């Protein structure tokens, strides 16, 4: 049997066992879901039957994702706002429950970089990364505790999960990213602790550590893409020194698969960890890197 035939057979088996989708009827909260990996997660989860809460700092872009999901027959709502705001976690979970009645999955994807060499990094620059990548996910998870840590036997058997997004920077460190690498390493510790504390309630918690995925964070910094947080503009991307980097295989010798990943491929890793296919996986860090770093 060819690889393609085998793939089609497996897909057919999955469709038969989950005819309405891997996440049919389940409620998924995805932060940073207006673009990039978060957007791809929202669209993919909706295609697999989930009711999706599209959360993002940019409410207008988030609404476009919701509109796209609805046009394809799915269910979704927007909850816009800054994940670092003191009241955001409460707002996010309250509006999720008001719209869909409960919470089954949380994907803490919102984040960005703010790079500087360690000796020039300010306290504010360092602490901002911790607020976005550590404090915000912690508050969102804690706020969802009444819905995820349910003692109801029916809920205990339901598919419930948390996926926190990390990075290879959190596993190996990275020059110019003391703040980001520290925060992304913290994500792994947070996830493992949640897995241990909430596992008895049937809740799985996993981390996905991305490598080079084609998003705003990995494009050329010279393109001028920015994000505004607390009234301050932060430049996104990686400095290239004016050099153009193409997508030819020889351009990525550090990645065994010889190319960056796409947002859609990244989203599939997240879907896997949230789906029943990962029913006995918890406390794990899934490296989605094309082999980078092995």
From TrEMBL:
<dbReference type="GO" id="GO:0004316">
    <property type="term" value="F:3-oxoacyl-[acyl-carrier-protein] reductase (NADPH) activity"/>
</dbReference>
<feature type="region of interest" description="Disordered">
    <location>
        <begin position="238"/>
        <end position="259"/>
    </location>
</feature>
<dbReference type="InterPro" id="IPR036291">
    <property type="entry name" value="NAD(P)-bd_dom_sf"/>
</dbReference>
<keyword id="KW-0521">NADP</keyword>
<protein>
    <recommendedName>
        <fullName>3-oxoacyl-[acyl-carrier-protein] reductase</fullName>
        <ecNumber>1.1.1.100</ecNumber>
    </recommendedName>
</protein>
<comment type="similarity">
    <text>Belongs to the short-chain dehydrogenases/reductases (SDR) family.</text>
</comment>
<dbReference type="InterPro" id="IPR057326">
    <property type="entry name" value="KR_dom"/>
</dbReference>
<dbReference type="InterPro" id="IPR050259">
    <property type="entry name" value="SDR"/>
</dbReference>
<dbReference type="InterPro" id="IPR020904">
    <property type="entry name" value="Sc_DH/Rdtase_CS"/>
</dbReference>
<dbReference type="GO" id="GO:0032787">
    <property type="term" value="P:monocarboxylic acid metabolic process"/>
</dbReference>
<dbReference type="Pfam" id="PF13561">
    <property type="entry name" value="adh_short_C2"/>
</dbReference>
<feature type="domain" description="Ketoreductase">
    <location>
        <begin position="26"/>
        <end position="201"/>
    </location>
</feature>
<dbReference type="InterPro" id="IPR002347">
    <property type="entry name" value="SDR_fam"/>
</dbReference>
